[in-house]
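User: For my dataset I need records formatted as: sequence, then structure tokens, nothing else. Please produce one.
Assistant:
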Amino acid sequence: MADNSFSIDVTAIRDRARAKMDAGPVTESYDRSPAEVIGVLNDVLATELVCWMRYSRHAISATGINRAQVAAEFAEHAESERDHAMKAAERISQLGGEPDFDPSTLSTRSHTTYETFSDDDLEGMLKENLVAERIVIESYQEIIRWLGNGDVTTRRIMEHILAEEEEHADDILDLLGS
């Protein structure tokens, strides 16, 4: 019968921790290139910032009979997108990278686009935001699969963000149906 008991060499772990303190959270069991993860997360950061700007613009400019309900949803989603951007930026920093907030490159690094509509085109705004959410959902699913067990912390951050993006898509779909 196989021995399935749990055992770790705490002394060896302590020695490695002391010897490589400058690596911060990146330990020997980290199985991704920190530079590559930082690059992916900077694209996520750009995507979330573009989504935050689009939702914010739509929340402020929306007009029409359903304006109050739709604008409130856009404002709520904008705040979530800003929070997602900050989570990505914080993780980039933890991994030893520099979060890229450069406005001149946001649109080229973002997975989504920044589309504007006439202020009375609530349906157009909703549809464009739903398309953006669907793009983000598929992109983030791919990132999560790629991360796998190689960077569990970043994967969990992305899983949390993904769950909220799926909720956003569902919210928008509900608004389009009403």
